[in-house]
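Handout, page 2. Input:
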Amino acid sequence: KNSSATYPSLCVYKYAPHVFYNNAFDDALLELRGMVLDQNNRIVVRPFTKTFNLSERLSADSKYPLDIKPDDRFNAVLKVNGFLGCATYVNNPDHNVGERVLYSTTGSLDSWFARKAREHLEGFEELFKSMPGHTFMFEIVDEEDPHIIKEEFGAYLLACRNVATGELVDRTELV
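Output:
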C-alpha cells in the first residue's frame, strides 16, 4: 500500500515483491497491480489484472495453469517493452480529488514514472474525459527509461477497463 503525497485521500495497492518471486498469488492479489482506492475503500483506478508469462502458466505448480482448448479464440497483442501508465478521469466528488485525470503506474500516483505517464498522455485528456470511470492503460516507452529491447518512443494503448465492473472496453469502441 502506497499513500499518495499528491492525493492524500488515495492509496495505490500493489502486491509485494515476494508475492511475485514466490508465485504466491491468490485471486485478490491478482487485482492489486496498481489499483487505487479512496479513503472509503472505493476503487478509483483499476488497471489490468496480473498477467503471467507463458512459462509461469505452464509450470507444474502453477495455481493458474494455462488451459487453451483447440477451438478457443482469443486476441493476441504485440508486447511493447516499456512501463504501464494509466489515465483515469475522476469526476466523483466522494473521492476527494476534484474533477481531474489521474495518472498512475503499478505502484504510484507520485513517482517519476507517473509524471512520465502524464507527459506522454496529456494530449489524450479529452478522450479520458469522454469516459469517466474508466482506466486507460498504455505501455509507455520513454527515452529516459532505457530497456534492452529497443522500441519507438511513445504511448501504446493496451486497453481500457471499467472501474466499477472491471470489464474491458472493446478497443474498436475507443477509436
